[in-house]
Amino acid sequence: MREWFAAGSAEQRVEQFSLEAAGLYLDYSKNRITPQTMALLMQLADEAGVPKRRDAMFAGDHINATEDRAVLHIALRAGADATFKVDGKSVMPAIHAVLDRMRVFSQRVRSGDWTGFTGKRITDVINIGIGGSDLGPRMVCRALSHLAGNGPRMHFVSNVDGTELAECLERLDPEQTLVIVCSKTFTTLETMANACSARQWFLDKGVAKDQLASHFAAVSTNVEAVRAFGIDPAHMFEFWDWIGGRFSLWSSVGISIALAVGFDAFEDLLIGGRAMDAHFSSAPLAQNMPVVLGMLGIWYRNFFGMPTSCMAPYSTSLELFPAFLQQLEMESNGKSVQLDGRHVRAHTAPVVWGSAGTNGQHAYFQLIHQGSQIVPVDFVAPLRPPRQLPGHHAKLLANCFAQAEALMLGRTAEELRATGLTDEIRIAHMVFEGNRPSNTLLMQDITPHTLGALIALYEHRTFVQGVVWNINSFDQWGVELGKILAKPIEGELNHAQSAAAGQHDASTGSLIARARAALGNA
Ligand code: F6P
User: Fold this and answer.
1) pLDDT value at 499 more than 90
2) Which residues have C-beta atoms less than 6 Å from ligand 1?
């Protein structure tokens, strides 16, 4: 890459390997690519059927074949006049009916019109959910917190470790707290355990059973389970099985976003996602941002065998984006079986990791610069800060750009010697190989619109890669077995049942015995 950038045609390279779409600017020139590489990668995308599968998704086909479901999170962010259908029936009226209810509810809570059981306004909202019912809205609320205004404080509780809920409740006043139980299935162990404990907290604090209604709302596809839990379906916001959990922040799962930053901002988020959808569905492959990013990922994963990739947002507001991306990519594409049941013929999703810059520079960037394996990095940065403190943002951006430059250029032994260094061992340690790839993605500001476009970009990138690997990006069978095995172990830990001889392997059996002893159930 160093040589390519030293050539007279370097500016042309940047021009050629950069793209703008939906308010995002992508510079992908610092990659190990030539025009021919990109042409061949685009040919691969085409031959793998990316345009065909994309069109099938937009047409509402059951592309989630193993669960026999359509995949239409794109309909959630489409205008009311869009024509998305599932099994021949338009889904738009139902989507917009729920959006209307979300608008009314969020405005009532934010204005103080919706009150707790003693008539006081709601100051705190807890979203109880996990996975897709947590990571997306949590990340968006964090990213847009500068727009919260007088809205309620948002809290997110996901883990079944009671510490999380207990620490959250410690700080809250039951008279002014609203709980959103957010679960697609409304059967998830962690969410139901936390929801039951939250309900008990209200009761213990003197809230009568019939007063709980002012303090609970639900988001789910499962009306019966919501009713059985004791939440009035009038306080339930519906969504549908053709939305995957990790793609659901655009649905009523986003009610916490509307509560935190207002419904208008939530709508702008949808519009940003819609702008990326329009780009993805119409731009030619070579100018299509999700396709280009997706195929660069394939290039490094499959042609260079790079096992991980790093997401480095240079923005504290976007600090939860890597965690969101982990579920999006690894739950979607962490698969080993192709659509036809055969084993995959190439490696699938890399391990995704990362955190906000500049923090990562003082932790793990050493490995990215000089480690023995190469890690492609996606740098993401807003050109202007959501919150102003003089001088800070230029320092932040300077470091972001410098990291990408250092990764690409490296530093040679000759350059070090030219500074007067003579100790060859020292020089060996101070050499940077360079030639390490990165993308840089910029947006003017972090707004609901640009954030919506960014999320949709990575959703579609994930989809593109799944198509190339010929896997189903929309199921998650791999999460099942552990859940099934946890049930009897929980019974054994609580001493409600003992393990039959040989039920567990020796290691697991001994761990259970230790825990039972610690819990006093031996
Ligand atoms: O266990 C994984 C998973 O099924 C995710 O796919 C999902 O986002 C999460 O659990 C939460 O599921 P639910 O919204 O049904 O509670």
Assistant:
1) no
2) 130-133, 183-185, 188, 191, 245-246, 331, 476, 479
